[in-house]
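=== RUN LOG ===
request id: a7f3
mode: sequence -> structure
chains: 1
length: 191
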Amino acid sequence: MRTLVIAVAATFALAAILLTIVPWRRVDAVAREFLWHRSIDINHQVWKQVTESRTRPPGNARNVRMKKKVIWVSTSTAARQRGISSTTSQVIAVYSYEEPYWRLARKVTADGEGQAGASWPHYTLSNDERVGQRTEVYKTIFQDTNGKQYAKKLRESKWRSLEPGSTYTLRLNAAGFILRINEQAHPPRSA
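=== RESULT ===
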């Protein structure tokens, strides 16, 4: 019974994978919309309290304090098995300091339509800020002859290589998501 359940589960999993990654049909569609979104994380420097033993503070630490601490160290398990047991004291340095780290303070964004207008958002940094992670998303929306739309997120180079108004052959999976875009564009027909 358990083998049957595993076999059925594996069959469903395989079917789900095949439905999402294997191209099922082709559709000719026109590249209609070119959307973009860009954002930049602006990080703010804050100071974090750190207490650490045996490691010297980094060079950019501030408010460094060092205390000596006595710890008791017992002999190893192997020594105890041989009948040797002792405990000794050891003096270690414990450092307490503040260390700088960067935390997200704000995010600046820019979005728009069209390949020509894609640009990074404008920002001004204060003294204790720096630019963090940059994120960019490019999406093209295609429309077939029946009016059905298909959207696909793309790398910027691929997004820019598509021509607005041109027809492309899309390879879709069973759920209707675009797996591939044929590079051969059919230019828009002139009226």
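=== NOTES ===
The first helix runs from residue 2 to 21.
Residues 23-43+104-181 form a domain with the OB fold (Dihydrolipoamide Acetyltransferase, E2P) fold (CATH 2.40.50).
=== END ===
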